[in-house]
Structure formats: structure tokens, C-alpha cells
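REVIEWER CHECKLIST
Item 1: Sequence provided? yes
Item 2: Single chain? yes
Item 3: Sequence as submitted:
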Amino acid sequence: MSGPEYVNVIYANRGEYKKADSYAPMRVCVDGRSVGSIIDMQDEEQNRALKRAVGGAFITKKLLDYEHDVDVTLDALVQSVRQHPVFNLYDTLQFFQLDFLIKIAFGETPGHLQRGGVVLGLAKLGNKRVSHWYSWQAMPELERFIFRSPIWGRWLVRPSQWARMGMERLQGRREAAKGASEHNDLLQKCIDASEKYPDILKPQTVANLVNSIISAGADTTAGTMSTTL
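Item 4: Structure as written out by the authors:
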């Protein structure tokens, strides 16, 4: 930006840059329900309220909570490269990013790097989701009728593991932790915020928020690093 006075214009949240209906095909159907993410959110009021509720989880001081996770995942990447000097650059970097993002989101280490392959069936979902979006973004109403109908949408195959995983982890965390929790991951930060702002951060919104960070970061980061290297 050529001047600080443009910050309020570019990052304004007053309807100047409302998302088009073409983002709707990014949503998936889980158990007959249409499930989206922050990426396809079109409700400006909800978006603004969401930023107020969870913005504190992304300040620099809070990001330092994940420094150990970065170090651990980097060590796993180094070990993987040493064990397999010849490797697919994009796939390995995507495994690295998935391991890191799932670690900071749910406090789990799926082990894509250690196993050298897909563990949770998530590695290629981002590509499939974007491909579906490209194909249907010009026909959002028809896409909704075909793929997200509450009547037959549950029987159509769409990459919905992201959404399903988020809901399962959220439900398990809520059932296991009554009161103070020892977890310090992103999911717990969102749960804490939802208890403070229950009208804004409903369970589905919490799952969507966490899944958005994982699904958006895995492919973009791997692609950027692969191209740079």
C-alpha cells in the first residue's frame, strides 16, 4: 500500500467488498446439512462479530504459543528429508503443513511426515474442493440444488472430511472438558471465545473457523513454498 490512509478502505467491513454468491459452491453437505467455512461466509454482521470474538487468538503474543509446534514439525520435516533424499517437493511440504496445522488446531500429530503418506485422507481434499468450486462457481443455485439438497445431498460424494473432522473434535472436546481445560490449541481458544460470546460463536461456527484455517493453509502454503524453492 502506498499510504496508511488506505488501510481502513482495504480492510473495511461495511459492505464495500461483499462476497458474491459464487463462493457458495465451496460449501459441503455433512449428514444432510450444508456446512461452510469463513472463506464462503457472506453475512457481514456475523463476520464482523466473529473478528471481535476471536481476534485476540491471532495477536503476536498468542501466536508464540505455537512456537514449540513449529519446532517439532520442522524437526520431523528434516528427518523425513534425510531418510528420503529424493522426494516429491509439493507432497512433502503439504504433509509438513498438514501436520503443523492439525497440531496447532487440535493438539494432535497425525504423522504424515513420519509415514510419508496420507494419514487422515485430507491431503488432496483442498484440491478437490477448489476444483469443484471452479466448475460450479458460475452456477451457485444449480450447484446448491444438486449437491446440497437436504433430501438427497447426503448421498452425494463430496470432500467433506474437513467439516466432519472439525465437528467430531469439537464434540469430543466439549464432552471431555467440563470447566477449565488443559488444552492450549486453536480449538480450545475458539471454545473459550464461544463461551464468552455464545450468540456469535455457535458450535458449527467454531468448527467452521478451525477447519477454515487448516484447509486454507495446507494447499496455499505448500504451493507457495514449492514454487519459491
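Item 5: Key structural point noted by reviewer: The first strand starts at residue 28 and ends at 30.
Item 6: Recommendation: ____
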